[in-house]
């Protein structure tokens, strides 16, 4: 759920680890949908155009995916993930939230689903990411939509992230410039 910086990184990590199965991405932004496909998404769903739960079930033998990774940080998407995942499936929250989120627990309870969260990383995780970047398994260039100088962080960096969400993915700050 979501093809922002976190979601796109998750897609690439799944591909780099040679995950067996489909990578279904749910995203609104045309730019982010395009990059999700380039990163290796097998299917990209726009929730304004299709019913996400029905489409996920049809793509996964009528049951829905075994795992959903919530990367969007939007209440509608975590609740959609809870409904879309198959019985006894797993919902992993990777997103960061600004405020408490109401979650409908009924699909989790009656579907005997599990929820988990992932936010921190260990030194070995960090090393694995660096190795994957060095080897080319992770490609971040397509995710970088803006390059700015340190003194432009507020005027250009935050403004882009807040006002141009459809076209901004990652802002790279050049601390040397």
UniProtKB/TrEMBL annotation:
Q: Which residues cross the membrane?
A: none
Gene3D superfamilies per record = Medium-chain alcohol dehydrogenases, catalytic domain (3.90.180.10), NAD(P)-binding Rossmann-like Domain (3.40.50.720)
State the UniProt keywords alphabetically. Answer: Oxidoreductase
Chain ranges of the Alcohol dehydrogenase-like C-terminal domain: 5-134
Q: Which GO terms describe its molecular function?
A: oxidoreductase activity
Q: Which InterPro entries match?
A: ADH-like_C, NAD(P)-bd_dom_sf
Output the superkingdom of the source species: Eukaryota
What SUPFAM superfamilies does the annotation carry? NAD(P)-binding Rossmann-fold domains (SSF51735)
* PANTHER family per the UniProt record, alphabetical: ZINC-TYPE ALCOHOL DEHYDROGENASE-LIKE PROTEIN C1198.01, ZINC-TYPE ALCOHOL DEHYDROGENASE-LIKE PROTEIN C1198.01-RELATED
| Protein's UniProt name | Alcohol dehydrogenase-like C-terminal domain-containing protein
List the source organism. Answer: Apiospora kogelbergensis
